[in-house]
Fold:
Amino acid sequence: MAHKADLLLDFGASLGEISPMIYGHFAEHIGGVYYDGLWVGEDSKVENVRGFRKALVDSFKKISPPVLRWPGGCFAETYDWRDGIGPKENRPERVNWWYTFDKRTETNQVGTHEFCDFCEMVGAEPYFAANMTSTTPLHIRNWAEYVNLPENLTTLTRERAQNGHPAPFDVKYWGIGNENWGGGGQMSPEMYMREYMRYSAVINSLDRGRIMKFIMCGANGHDIDWTRRIMQEMAKTKYPEAATWGMSVHYYCGTAGTPQEFTKDQWYELLFKADFMRRIVDDHRAAMDEFDPERKIALVVDEWGCWHKDGTGPSGGYNLFEQQSSMRDAVVAALTLNIFNNRSDVVKMANVAQLCNNLHSLYLAGGEHFVETPNYHVFDMFKTHQGAKHVRTRVKCDILTRDGYRPLEMVSASASEKDGMVTITLANLSAEEEAIITLSAAERSLPEKGVFTILAHEDLHAVNDFENPKRVTPTSKEISLSGAKEIRLPKGAVAALVLG
Ligand code: AHR
Structure:
């Protein structure tokens, strides 16, 4: 059985550059993300680069991560940056935000220097989330001084040198607060904006538009009222001098079944939830447009992914929120990244949550074990979109409908071109049928030759685990698209076609 789709690439219609930052990541101090995930320590038997798991560093580098958000999430709202600097043996052990959930303490072995070192190793821009809930504007300003001001300028920059890094780290992206409507202080939008103005004005006093870009705390999912009221407050500001670059939003698709146990109906339920990202982006941008028609403030989806039942990962519940990721999660990743590509005029950064041993992770690790999940392969297959020129796609295919959601197209697609190469990324959303997709192009012809990569598995529940780390891996073949220009995708598959 097969379902058919027509995919037109309209080379005459583009939304401009696909920001590389759409392919960003998030790694919070929570559960097993750092300790025994990314970080094993310099003295570990596990091969490492200055304490970071080498297998992960090597793998992560390959997908060109543009940006990495840190240290939270909620963790940021009780984080004191001074705990994470200086000799490691002197750093305090603390209960952190997540202590009451998993009884794990924070040893602060990964702090500002280690995190920036990791970013440098993998080529990502650091994106700091500043605590605005339980500290002061001055304390965060001092952090910015410590990381960004020139060598030997002040006592703090000399302290940075003593701690091993004389040159500034030049951290550009700063989130001011996290989820301040909830764990970050239960603020109203108006209260948050008052705090944001205080923090951003004080931090901005040492940079004034030189390199720092501030990202405001945005809404929880589809809470458009939050966005509108934030933008309204902003518009009233007499001195909007802060370097506000973006407005965030967080959206997770809540589980339907578990990562490895779901029915066909739950397969589609999760995909409807993932596809809801279109409304999240469109409706928040529309609310922002009321006050920012020139779109000076970017939309940043700085937490997204599937949030399944806790305890389905290899640690069996020890690592908080650790979950497995199956082919279904890979399809969610592909669908979401295609949505961002097709809204590249609006979405300027996005960060999938979270990198390792947690929600929608690219990696699962523990001791000697290390696994790339199906989500990782999607980011690998989509990486040529980064910084490429978007090409409009038009898909004619079967749709599925469900109350409360927009119609779900059974084929998800996006396209871009760069350096004479055309990248088309696809997902077959059907859990039952192969997709036969006929390609055509307007304004220009499609290059005929290229490489076709498919990520698929007969069992849509399939995962990669410590016993079988390569159960779900992509296969690539050379392709020549002469004649009917027809390509076939197995049920529930993700594909990338790179032509030229
Ligand atoms: O990603 C896990 C948590 O989800 C983050 O700490 C928080 O920002 C969100 O609620």
